[in-house]
Amino acid sequence: MYKSQKGRYKPDRQWPANSSDPFPMEGDILVLQFINTYRNRSRADRKDLLGSYTDFIAWCWEFGMINLDEHNYLDLEGYCHADEANLVWQRAVKLREALHEFIYGPMRDREVHEIDMLIFNELIDEANAHLRYELDNNRPRLAWIEIEDQPKGPLLKLVKQAEYLLNSQAFDHIKKCKCGNVFLDTTHGKNRRWCNPLGCGQKARMKVYRKRIAERVMGEEATVMKIELIDPKFVGEVA
Ligand SMILES: [Zn+2]
């Protein structure tokens, strides 16, 4: 990887951190990393990393949305109230797919489906019902209320993060990598092509390199064959 690219791209950790890493990080936009929990959407080796409520809150903990105590509490809540937790997990997956559609639909010149708008709006309404201005150092600040102990708490926080991204200028600079992962292009020239230059970028560069080598070898073989055909000395040896 070129030095200049390294400077522009600062992953929290390189991908893959290790082979057993359940949620490899690429970049620093929480909502995009949430969308990328459906890994490699465009490839045959696609994999959904959110297979349960347990997976969902493990992701929330790893990405700093909740602390370890909150995670452990919600994990137990999810165990004791499995139906409620299951519903939250299903809504989280629906939200993820709706957010993907918000990005990918316009890219493909495809109208975003009403269902995705409905899912998003319902969650935003629920999240707003848990937000209130409270005094903090004698200054009104927006605060979450009655959400900490609820299994859906992290989901509501996540949808507000998505709302923030949707209304920011950054949304126009979200791109999709060949592997299917989405990423925010923060480069000056907006010319970043890969979700992770250390992952997909490296693979692509290796592919081009191997193709060039193969073409060169084939070219050399063709030259040898040409020489074989016109060199009577060589033809004689073969005969
Ligand atoms: Zn990629």
Q: What can you see in these coordinates?
A:
The chain has 239 residues and is mainly alpha-helical. It has two domains: 14-192, Orthogonal Bundle (Jann2411-like fold); 196-239. The protein is built from nine helices and six strands, in the order ααββααααββαββαα. It has a two-stranded antiparallel ribbon. Strands 3-4 form a two-stranded antiparallel sheet. A two-stranded antiparallel ribbon has the order 5-6. Helix 3 packs antiparallel against helix 4 (68-80) and helix 6 packs across helix 7 (153-166). The radius of gyration is 25 Å and the shape is elongated. The chain starts with a helix and ends with a helix. It binds zinc ion.
Characteristic terms for this protein:
239 residues; mainly alpha; Jann2411-like fold; 2 domains; two-stranded antiparallel ribbon; 9 helices; 6 strands; disordered N terminus; binds zinc ion
